Amino acid sequence: MDGTHSIGETNRSTGRSILENLGVTPLINAGGPNTKHSGSRPRAESIDAMNAMSEVFVDLEELLLAAGNEIAQLTGNEAATVTSGASGGLVVQAAAAMAKDDPERISLLPITNEMPNELIIQRGHRFIYDHLYLAPGSHFVEVGRATDCTVEEIDAAIGPNTAALIHLESPYKEKTGAPLTELSDLAHSHGLPVLADCASMLPPRENLTKYTRQGADLVSFSGGKAVRGPQSTGFLVGKTEWIEYARLNNAPNPGVTRAQKVSKEEIAGLLAALKVFTDTDENEETKNYLDQMNFIVDQLAEIPGLSVKVTHDYDHYIPHAVIVLNKDWRGPTYSEITERLKAGSPRIYAATDYRDPAQCMWIDPLNLQDGEVEIVTTQLRELLIKGASGF
Ligand SMILES: *Cc1c(COP(=O)(O)O)cnc(C)c1O
After folding, report:
1. What does the DSSP 8-state code read for residue 359?
2. 194 band by pLDDT with thresholds 50, 70 and 90
3. Which H or E run contains 118?
4. Residue 224 CA: which ligand 1 atom is closest?
5. Distance of CA 114 to CAs 21, 37, 126, 132, 138, Å?
6. Which residues contact 375 (CB under 8 A, 6 or more apart)?
7. Ligand 1 pocket at CB < 6 A
8. Model pTM score
9. Which of 32, 236, 294, 386 is 20 to 30 A (C-alpha) from 57?
10. Alpha helices (H) along 190-321
11. If you take atom 11 of ligand 1, which residue's CA is the nearest one?
């Protein structure tokens, strides 16, 4: 078989048929681009580009250099490169900080005893994904307290073994600590880079350049969240010098990041998605999300014992319908409500605050398709009305 036979219409699989054959039940994703609930829906343009790219072969280094230039242009940055998710970007950042463009060091990683291998991180910036920074053999030097940290404390921790300073930007971070601009000035006065994890900070689209403008040398973003490229992709933006170090330390080159390879199809899919993402009118997009979330609020507002409102702020990258159970609520907890939604028919994934599931729950419109907001609202309303009477 040469693979050129087209598959007959009647045999075409659908997402549902693939899952059915496997005995797995699909769900409506009303909780946002959570990886465990399969991320986000790649844009049609992204899937088309992946299919098209499967027809050709290319020198991957040439493709990656060109794709990096394209991403830099689309995002308004000096330089960029493709990674395997934002978390793959963290591994590459740390490798770049330690090995730079030294082929011997690159091949030694994760053995780092003969090179600066310490990453300074504020305690308030510790995060569930930060161990990726340690994958290429680096170590953390933690500074400050969970709630705050001064630039002086960071300065005092810098020594001959320091390779970089880390900065996290996320809803799940203490808002206190050293401002990124001051952290960058400090790092640069020591000849060190700032590595920033800003994986989920899109939209707003202005964030594509915000952290590089504030001085970060390498900023990691997800391609598989709101950008809606392939789930496994991400990209680094930053200074030309540091992007080059990142590229040299990244797959497909052999070395510690080899397991993070990104295919030519995924690279094309990311570019296509980013192009649409950066071309999209954010006000119009936001209005569409607001309409959907206001519909939920209207339908749930009169249920006794709870408050529901549309929230769009630093913690909620697009408008969310946030539900808070009041003190007099006698029904199920947030976790019980989301479990019941997930056990329903159709199954629905809704989100709780993962740091503290007793805070609130929300509906995120990013992955909702036509007609789904109505289904989600009906199920949720029924469940909450029952819950309000103690069930
Ligand atoms: C989502 C996220 C990641 C992981 O990004 P992937 O693209 O899924 O690898 C890392 N850091 C933060 C802060 C995130 O929000």
Report:
1. S
2. very high
3. strand 118-122
4. 7
5. 53, 41, 26, 21, 12
6. 28, 346, 348
7. 35, 85-87, 127, 129, 170, 197, 199-200, 222, 224, 234
8. 0.95
9. 236
10. 207-213, 240-249, 264-279, 282-300
11. 199
